[in-house]
Structure formats: C-alpha cells, structure tokens
Give the backbone structure.
Amino acid sequence: MLMKTQVTSPTTYADDKNARFSNIHSQLSGAKERWDDTLSQLPTDTKDRIKYKLQQEIKEFKRRFPNITSWNDIAQSLPEAKGATMDKIKVDITMQRFLMHLWSCTIVGKFNPFKVAPIQVYKPDPNKDEYVAWDGQHTLVALWLICTHVLKMDDLSTIEVPIVIYKSTQKADMRDSFVGHNGGEYKTMLDAYDIIEQMIYGVRVDNSQNPKWIDIESKQQIIEKYGFFLTKKTLGDDHMPGAITRVGEFEKLNNDMLESLCKYLVAVGADKRPVEEKEMVMMSYFFTAAYHDPNVKITDKFIKDVAYNNLNRFNADFNPDGPFWDQASTAYYNWHSQNVKGVNPRFNKEAIHGFPFLVAQLNKDLSNYRFPVGNNNSPFVPMIEDLF
C-alpha cells in the first residue's frame, strides 16, 4: 500500500518574518551571527544595498583614520568602563530590535571613538564571565565590522570593548530599561514599530501580563493568521508581499476591526504585495466607522463585496496618484463649485474627503447594504454623476 505524502504549503516572506516571535526562549547571538542571520532574512536587493553601503562606509572610515592599523589604536580612545572581549558578549535577539544593517554601516563611516557608548549588559550567571547585551547591539556590530572588515581581525577573544554591567538578571527589568532609555547620537530612538516588537516579545518570551502588551500580541496573531507582517522602511523589506508599515492603524484598531481589515486586504490581494499606506489609512477608517455604526452589519460577504467592488471600480488602488483620488478630487471640486461660495477649494487626499466619496460609491453600487455615515466633519457629498 502506498503511503500518502503530506504536502506542506511553502512559507511566505511574511511567515518567515513573523517566525522570529515563535521561539519563546532567549536566543543569544554574537556580533557576527547577529549580522549574518538577520542579513540572510532580507530580500536580495536589500542585501545588495547593504553590502554597497558597507563598502562606502569602510572607505570613509579609512579616509578619516588613515593612521589606525590595529585595535589598540582605537581602544586607547574608547571610554573607560569595565572591559570585556567581544567573544564573551551575546545579543539576546528576543530583546533587541531587528538589526538595522544600514545603520551599523553608517556608524562605521561616522565612527568617533570618543562617542562610543559602552554596551549595556547583564550577567545571566553571576559565576560566569559571560554577558548578554540588552542594549547597544548596533554599536557592538559596528565595532565588529571595523575589526573584521577594516582591520581584518578575526579573533574576537583579543578585542576588548567597553561594557556597563547591570546587576539585575530579570529579563523583564532589562526590557523595561531598553524601552525607557533609548536615544542619543549613536543610537536610533525606539519608534512605534520597535516598541510594538518589544511588547510582542514581552508577552511571548517573558509572559508579561501588561494588558496593553497582551492586546498588541493578540493583534500580531491576527495579522500572522492572514499572511501579513509589520515592518518599517529602514528595515528594507517594506516592498515585500504582506508588508504593513502603518503601525499606527494597527495599534488603534480593536481586534474585530483589524480582523475585518485583514479579510478585506486578502480579498484585494494585498497579501501578495505590500499594503499601501493610503490603503491602510482609508480602509482602517472605513472599518472603524462601520464597527461603530449600529446600522452596519459586518459579515464576511459584506467585506468581500466591498473588496470586489473596490477592485472593479478603481483596482482597490488608494495610491496618491491612482484613479480613486483622481475621481474623488473631480467630484470634490464639482461639489465645491456648486455648494460653497467665497472659499477656495482645497481637496485633501485623506479620509476627510476620501471617505465620503468611497461611501457614496459603495451606496451607488451595493444598494442592498447599509454603509457607515462616519464622523469626519466634512460637508462634502459627491454628486452621483461624479462617481465611477
């Protein structure tokens, strides 16, 4: 009897990106491994851009420091703190944000030993001479790049870097400090994406009971379910299928709204392309208004019919230069000329004018449904002849 072979679906980029949240244990990585592992997860074109960036910053480093030929030439100018060799320092990748390779390359080109901040670490085992970096991974990786790519040094046990040891061994304390203390010339400020990432890790790795963090992690489960992932432009993968860069809407929507939005995005094929910013703004506004309007019944059929209608009318394209805004602006200026006197028309490619047009279009095409009225304080009412 022939055995049936189980066929597994190929993973998408979104699956691979979201998988980093699946390991609920600390994941420790040295500077080289951190660079290589995170680089391997990026699209090929982004890798090429990073490699080119590194080459240019190495040239800049050598131009600015022609007399540096060894690590000692650098070490004598570094701030005095407790020293530790680089091989003894690991990065907990569940605590640090995803490595921004371009930023580490920039630090190489802008290098100034007098501005190097010590790596902030703790000792998971007080009896061992081993350290875990809870902050400063970009500095650590930049120093590693200088050693290996400029000075051609491979033995990390001979390279001592400054560290500051924090006494607590509780990861929850370190994570809270990481969120609270980031900033400065040699660090990138934690942005909304970075903080969301910490919240997700905090729940899945640290078992945090913070209600806001639990809420964010539950939303992460929803976008994972539908094949989407959060990112930002500086990570270089915002052009990949399923990429969501508007994290503000992700935070503001409740779970029901977010699930409705994800179903819509799948229906218009946004899991096979990046989710456009205006698309995220407009449809988040739409489903928020629908959720709060008692006359609107949000069902799977409702969501699919809205999606297919948007695809049919304007290819579900909310890009600023797309057909939706062209038609909406025409409708606005025609309405303004007939209804508003003494005030110059000013069309905004935002929900204030886009939402009334979208709802008017849906009311025209899908008269069997009730659609949200919304509350954007706009008197704009498109004329039916100005719709698609």
Summary: Confidence is low (pLDDT under 50) at residues 1-5.
